[in-house]
Design brief:
This protein is mainly alpha-helical. The chain is built from 13 helices and two strands. The protein has a two-stranded antiparallel sheet. It has two domains: 187 residues, Lysozyme (Orthogonal Bundle), CATH 1.10.530; 60 residues, Endochitinase, domain 2 (2-Layer Sandwich). Pfam families: Glyco_hydro_19. GO terms for molecular function: chitinase activity. Keywords: Disulfide bond, Hydrolase, Signal.
């Protein structure tokens, strides 16, 4: 019996190593934009999403009444995304899913940085990337924190493409990006590449261990547990809002803050030529019925 088992183990282990080798073979190198991962074998974001599309989506950002004129540009977004494409950002699941993910991520960005209201020219959805910071902060968002104590004089009001608030969030994102945001929160309103990197990092990173990221729930990397199903959390765009904003946006029925984010996503799908009908049914688009993944905690952003 001994010999038989040894043989079987050898066969199994050689199958495993053959499988690993097959995976290794698929790793691709597309230079600065995507390197050293299976995801890089697919098209990269700049193949699918080009300058003119960025200009269409954020058509009003440099109009004289906007609040971050000259700050945001396509190049910064592509540079920032180059750090995350090898992890699957905008490179997962084939062209349609890739474009949907870019639209979904930018839908959050557009909604959170918009200064468009009902009367705005071009319509309220044309004003994404109007801001790069909170205009009249009512406080400095400093909370005693052992890991990420506030730097003297620093203010941690909302800044960036998906605004970051609070010292502990600046600290955690700074660690993730290897940029000292705790001591230099102002980087997020001075450098659009860093501002986009911070937002993509948040999109790609679970808030807690064992939780999915917004990316995971969107591209289908996540299988809901029984608890998730009981809490009405299903894979899709709605769950991205749940992870990014929790109870502020989700579990409250059809509220404006939720519908505004969805509207930006759908508008961008149309402008990118994908079409809003590719967004899927309203049950997966919204999170009005979902319980928060992280109840009663300040969600990582806003
Ligand atoms: C690459 O795209 C194909 C379809 O075009 C898709 O089936 C596959 O999952 C993608 N690969 C990765 C690693 O996402
Ligand atoms: C903005 O940040 C990026 C990434 O850290 C860096 O490469 C670039 O030099 C910065 N740009 C400016 C003008 O400081
Ligand atoms: C499911 O929820 C219950 C009650 O909140 C909790 O005790 C349990 O640990 C959860 N299970 C998982 C797998 O998260």
């Amino acid at each position: 019996m001994g010999a038989k088992w040894v043989l079987m183990i050898m066969v199994v282990s050689s199958l495993i190593s053959a499988n690993v080798d097959a995976k290794k073979d698929k790793v691709c190198d597309k230079g600065w934009e995507c390197k050293g991962s299976i995801y890089c074998c697919n098209q990269t974001i700049s193949d699918l999403f080009q300058t003119y599309q960025f200009e269409n989506l954020f058509a009003k950002r440099n109009s004289p009444v906007a609040h971050a004129v000259g700050f945001w540009d396509y190049r910064s977004f592509i540079l920032a995304s180059s750090d995350f494409q090898h992890l699957g950002f905008g490179t997962t699941g084939g062209k349609l899913m890739q474009m949907r993910e870019v639209a979904a991520f930018l839908g959050h960005v557009g909604s959170k940085t918009s200064c468009g209201y009902g009367v705005a020219t071009g319509g309220p959805l044309a004003w994404g990337l109007c801001y790069n910071r909170e205009m009249s902060p009512s406080q400095s968002y400093c909370n005693p924190d052992y890991l990420y104590p506030c730097a003297p004089g620093a203010e941690y009001y909302g800044r960036g493409a998906i605004p970051v608030y609070w010292n502990f969030n600046y600290g955690a994102i700074g660690d993730g990006l290897k940029v000292d945001l705790l001591n230099h929160p102002e980087y997020l309103e001075q450098n659009a590449t860093i501002a986009f990197q911070a937002a993509i990092w948040r999109w790609m990173t679970p808030i807690k261990k064992k939780q999915p990221s917004a990316h995971d729930v969107f591209v289908g990397n996540w299988k809901p547990t029984k608890n998730d199903t009981l809490a009405k959390r299903v894979p899709g765009f709605g769950a991205t809002m749940n992870l990014l904003y929790g109870e502020m946006v989700c579990g409250q029925g059809e509220i404006d803050p939720m519908n505004n984010i969805i509207s930006h996503y759908l508008y961008y799908l149309d402008l990118m030529g994908v079409g809003r009908e590719q967004a899927g049914p309203h049950e997966v688009l919204g999170c009005g019925e979902q319980e928060a993944f992280n109840p009663n905690t300040a969600a990582a952003t806003s």
